[in-house]
Specification:
alpha+beta, four-stranded antiparallel β-sheet, about 40% helix, about 20% strand, binds adenosine-3',5'-cyclic-monophosphate
């Protein structure tokens, strides 16, 4: 007996090596032991397709129908896309998806449930795939995968909406369903690399991915794990900034990509989509800030949440002056999203650029630490969201938490040195100057 998770991994490896019949026998063992495992059914269809068996189409249809009934619309769409890619007809699945998950569905609602996949620890019996397969192995597996849930009647009455899509009008939903592009990736593949440009976002239809950020020293911080139903890649799209993190497949993964074509199909409802995407982004930015910012590092999760609550959040339009040089420091700011420019007035009144600020950057610390007027002007250059912590509260934290004091002091010192270099001032105090 072997755990279902191990069998799935072995089968995936065999499939990727082109050993389709051996992979099929393992996936079939999963379906035999756990008929509700829709992923294994779809994989049986993939193997049958790779082996040239026309029965594959029937399995995709049956597995797709089960997924729709069971509360898993995205894997159902995977079945539809594969059918279409091979000249099959998926209209029945698409119609059922629209009826059950569109904005006029009476199934989407409160008390929603979905039929869970079997436990990955379940012990199952497997054939020895090094031995020749029985002659009817393919036919048996196809029949089993096609009919695995024929007798099942106990489906959830209410199902969960598809994030973003179920909020669209039925016409737009149908249009978008037709344009989502299926990408099937092996474990270890990268979908997104931090810093690259991005013009699409993705729905996870199956498998597991990890999201991680890399710091200047190449160290990785895992930010999240994503599974079926998750959305990612929306941040670069919304902010027109490079990708904020890398996303890598932990297992085999099925993705549905919302690319340019889907966005064009959505044109009249882009506002609905953008608003829903903004919701994801904000939560994620806050989570990432807590995971990566040195400002939050010294604290436990609970303390981080507590600290975050003391910040106020401000959306600023391009051109807004957040700090004006010479005014009294009001508190500490953290950039949650967007971009800001820092500049200082020269004696002739001209502004000299000192640098830019972006997601995760802290500013406003110099005047607070030195108890002096602010030394530069900070202006938003694009739409930005900044978090603000009032000076009284910053003073209390700096007194109570030595790590925060030293972090902010090091930041202020580095910036002072950079500014002096940029402004052509001499960094050394007058009495240390070396006269040549
Ligand atoms: P984008 O910046 O376009 O590319 C990387 C993606 O990783 C990003 O969009 C988000 O969709 C996703 N991401 C970043 N941080 C998190 C997080 N904390 N949780 C989940 N997903 C995230």
């Amino acid at each position: 007996m072997v755990s279902l998770g191990d069998v799935r991994r072995s089968a995936a490896t065999l499939f990727s090596q082109g050993q389709h019949l051996a992979a099929l026998r393992l996936y079939d063992a999963i379906v035999a032991a756990a008929p509700l495992d829709y992923d294994a059914r779809i994989r049986v269809a993939d193997c049958a397709l790779a082996l040239g068996d026309p029965g594959a189409a029937r399995v995709y249809r049956a597995a797709g129908r089960f997924c729709i009934q069971a509360g898993h619309p995205l894997p159902a769409l995977v079945c539809a896309r594969v059918l279409e890619a091979h000249g099959g007809d998926a209209s029945e699945l698409i119609t059922a998806l629209v009826a059950d998950y569109g904005s006029e569905s009476r199934r989407v609602g409160k008390f929603a449930a979905r039929i869970a996949s079997p436990d990955e620890a379940l012990a199952i019996e497997i054939p020895d795939v090094r031995q020749p397969a029985p002659p009817d192995a393919l036919a048996t597996a196809v029949a089993r995968a096609e009919h695995a849930t024929d007798e099942l009647r106990d489906y959830p009455e209410a199902v969960h909406a598809i994030p973003l899509l179920s909020a669209l009008s039925e016409a737009a939903f149908r249009r978008v369903l037709q344009t989502l592009v299926l990408t099937r990736l092996p474990a270890g593949a990268h979908v997104i690399r931090e810093g690259e440009p991005g013009s699409s976002f993705f729905f996870v239809a199956g498998g597991e991915l990890r999201v991680y950020a890399t710091d200047g020293l190449g160290r990785q911080t895992e930010l999240a794990r994503l599974g079926e139903g998750a959305v990612f890649g929306e941040m670069a799209l919304l902010s027109a900034q490079p990708r904020s993190a890398s996303v890598e497949c932990v297992t085999e993964v099925d993705l549905l990509e919302v690319g340019r074509q889907s966005l064009a199909a959505l044109a009249d409802e882009l506002a609905v989509v953008a608003e829903a995407l903004h919701g994801f982004t904000r939560e994620r930015l806050l989570g990432n800030l807590m995971a990566t910012s040195p400002l939050f590092k010294p604290f436990t999760r609970m303390q981080q949440r507590d600290l975050l609550r003391r910040f106020t959040s401000h959306d600023v339009a391009p051109g807004t002056v957040v700090i004006r040089e010479g005014e009294e420091g009001r508190g500490l700011f953290v950039v949650l999203s967007g971009e800001l420019d820092v500049s200082r007035r020269a004696s002739d009144g001209q502004g000299i650029p000192l640098g830019g600020l972006r997601t995760g950057d802290v500013f406003g610390e110099m005047s607070l630490l030195r108890d002096a007027p602010t030394t530069a002007t900070v202006v938003a250059t694009r739409h930005a969201t900044v978090l603000f912590l009032a000076r009284e509260y910053v003073a209390r934290i700096v007194d109570a938490v030595p790590e925060i004091r030293s972090y902010l002091e090091a930041l202020a010192e580095d910036r002072e040195i950079d500014n002096q270099l940029l402004l052509g001032e001499d960094a050394a105090p007058a009495d240390e100057r070396i006269l040549i």
